[in-house]
Amino acid sequence: MKVILVRHAETEWNQRGIIQGHMDSPLTARGALETSALLATLTDVAYPVECVYASPLGRAWHMGQALAGHFLCPLVAQAALKEQAFGHYEGMSSAQLQYDHPNEAEALFAQDAGFCPPGGESLAQASQRVIGFLHELQAAVAYQMLCIVTHGHVSQGILALLKEGKIDHFSRYAQPNASYSVLEMMEGKCITLRWGIATHLRKLTKLNN
């Protein structure tokens, strides 16, 4: 079974550098363009997606709706695909967190996947719930090609675990909004075939310059 792992498109809080977590904000105009660009590239590579599973948070659900409509397939909400819960940091700008709590900010975004924000969860915990869902899915369904829509930070943890077998270097796997990765699951194992694919966004970058 192959899985296309998608990050949602740009939101207003992404643009402003505000930590979202389990909170939410609307897509930007660029986010709408990113969604269209992703749909076009997935059409070009002709992935026969049979079902889309998406985080129920609005920004990911919007992408899930677009993908399911594009592929004319079912869309299923899955809470296990939510972003890491950042607790008391949600709604705060990354710059403000860095200013007020530099050690915590460094741990959260670069160094320590085991760091748990006050009132939230660690990246290690969030990544394991997504990996657990992927393994449950493999055992429960007969699809050959799925699409999973989730979030940026938790995707870093997932990719680190799949590529390196450990989460320590999660910051290496940062990727832009509306990028995607391709995973393959077989015999109880999950491997990353390609990750952080974002070539379809190059034209958008040129438009902004």
UniProtKB/TrEMBL annotation:
Keyword field? Gluconeogenesis, Glycolysis, Isomerase
Which residue positions are annotated as catalytic?
H8, E83
What EC number(s) does the entry state? 5.4.2.11
- Name a single GO biological process: glycolytic process
- Identify a single GO molecular function assigned to this protein: phosphoglycerate mutase activity
InterPro entries named among the record's database cross-references: His_Pase_superF_clade-1, His_PPase_superfam, Phosphogly_mut1
Residues that, per the record, bind substrate: R7, H8, A9, E10, T11, E12, W13, N14, R59
Family, as annotated: Belongs to the phosphoglycerate mutase family. BPG-dependent PGAM subfamily.
Q: What is this protein called?
A: phosphoglycerate mutase (2,3-diphosphoglycerate-dependent)
Query: What is the organism of origin for this protein?
Result: Xenorhabdus beddingii
